[in-house]
């Protein structure tokens, strides 16, 4: 595991966030077919498998969690079709109202929710999955808008609390509306599974003096990870508090409409801050999971917040446990 990070790796990754760009839509590729059962996937860039390419640019791939979930579902339901209707960059507001040019083009000028409602009205859909909300916060990190696309030093990285408050306000107001409209469009017989988010913000641990030294095999390696860094206590803790509230808000809105919740955060063991005996990296388990299951610690393509193939497969496994 290499840890060749720039000084503001966490900020850069959060700038990419769930707002992957580029690539073509990768749905079923076929027109709706009456008499066929569909799996409909909705949401942001996690839904459409965004990962960094060889140049570190985020691109849609066929290795998203929805793709791996579809593969597993077809083992027992070979006639199932996958309608892949996500779009990178969607937040709760644009999911409801539109406003992102690339996404509106994909949905013929409609919002993703409006497109989903039309599809549900015209087709037999047995399962809907939903991943939405993270992009309410992807612009809430100070220091990511430098000409280099990242903060030049760790001292330029910070969380914009006003931006976070606005993102949370929209999440609280809009997620219940999304859940209600999806349930109404799908009807009581269609299973809908929403997702909580894992915590890439744990990367901020490397900006905290004590945690940074714990997360590196030596003080010298810590200097290589974050050159020119100084103690930045509190950023990781603040980020954990934010994501905890985000996931609680999503869960409450989904459960109120009979939408099941895939708690994917459990895969990443967010509360496990122990360093395993014999660890090669000296990282606590929760931070190691972020490195192992996302592109955050990849020195060539990262840092990038999106799940890698293994991460996407693990997320798909959590959804599969929920599917009836």
Structure description:
The longest helix is centred in the middle third of the chain and has 26 residues, at 161-186. 39% of the residues lie in helices and 11% in strands. Helix 2 (65-74) crosses helix 11. The radius of gyration is 19 Å and the shape is globular. A hairpin with a 5-residue loop joins strand 2 (51-52) and strand 3. The protein has helices at residues 9-16, 65-74, 92-97, 101-106, 112-122, 161-186, 209-215, 219-225, 235-256, 285-293, 309-322, and strands at 37-43, 51-52, 58-59, 81-84, 124-131, 141-142, 158-159, 191-195, 260-262. The strands form 3 sheets. The protein has a 5-stranded parallel beta sheet, sandwiched between helices. Strands 2-3 form a two-stranded antiparallel ribbon. Strands 6-7 form a two-stranded antiparallel sheet. It has one domain: Rossmann fold (3-Layer(aba) Sandwich). The chain is an alpha/beta fold and 324 residues long.
Furnish the topology, listing elements before pairings.
Blueprint: H1 9-16, E1 37-43, E2 51-52, E3 58-59, H2 65-74, E4 81-84, H3 92-97, H4 101-106, H5 112-122, E5 124-131, E6 141-142, E7 158-159, H6 161-186, E8 191-195, H7 209-215, H8 219-225, H9 235-256, E9 260-262, H10 285-293, H11 309-322
Parallel strand pairs: 1-4, 1-5, 5-8, 8-9
Antiparallel strand pairs: 2-3, 6-7
Helix pairs in contact: 2-11, 5-6, 6-9
């Amino acid at each position: 595991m290499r840890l060749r990070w720039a000084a503001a790796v966490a900020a850069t990754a959060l700038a990419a966030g769930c707002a992957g760009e580029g690539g073509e839509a990768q749905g079923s590729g076929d027109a709706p077919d009456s008499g066929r059962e569909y799996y409909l996937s909705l949401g942001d860039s996690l839904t459409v498998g965004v990962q960094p390419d060889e140049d570190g640019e985020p691109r849609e791939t066929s290795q998203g969690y929805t793709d791996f979930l579809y593969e597993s579902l077809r083992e027992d339901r070979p006639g199932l079709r996958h309608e892949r209707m996500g779009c990178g960059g969607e937040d709760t507001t644009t999911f409801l109202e539109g406003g992102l040019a690339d996404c509106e083009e994909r949905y013929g000028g409609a919002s993703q929710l409006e497109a989903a409602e039309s599809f549900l009205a015209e087709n037999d859909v047995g399962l809907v999955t939903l991943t939405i909300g993270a992009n309410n916060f992807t612009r809430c990190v100070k220091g990511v808008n430098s000409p280099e696309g990242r903060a030049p030093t760790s001292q330029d990285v910070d969380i914009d609390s006003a931006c976070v408050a606005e993102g949370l306000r929209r999440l609280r107001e809009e997620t219940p509306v999304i859940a209600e409209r999806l349930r109404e469009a799908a009807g009581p017989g269609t299973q809908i599974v929403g997702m909580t988010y894992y915590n890439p913000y744990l990367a901020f641990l490397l900006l905290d003096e004590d945690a940074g030294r714990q997360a590196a095999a030596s003080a010298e390696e810590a200097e290589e990870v974050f050159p020119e860094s100084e103690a930045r206590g509190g950023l990781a803790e603040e980020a954990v508090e934010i994501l905890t509230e985000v996931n609680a808000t999503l869960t409450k809105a989904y459960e109120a409409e009979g939408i099941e919740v895939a708690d994917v955060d459990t895969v990443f063991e967010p509360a496990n801050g122990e360093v395993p005996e014999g660890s090669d990296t000296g990282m606590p388990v929760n931070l190691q999971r972020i490195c192992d299951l996302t592109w955050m610690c990849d020195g060539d393509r990262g840092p990038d917040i999106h799940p890698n193939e293994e991460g996407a497969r693990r997320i798909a496994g959590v959804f599969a446990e929920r599917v009836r």
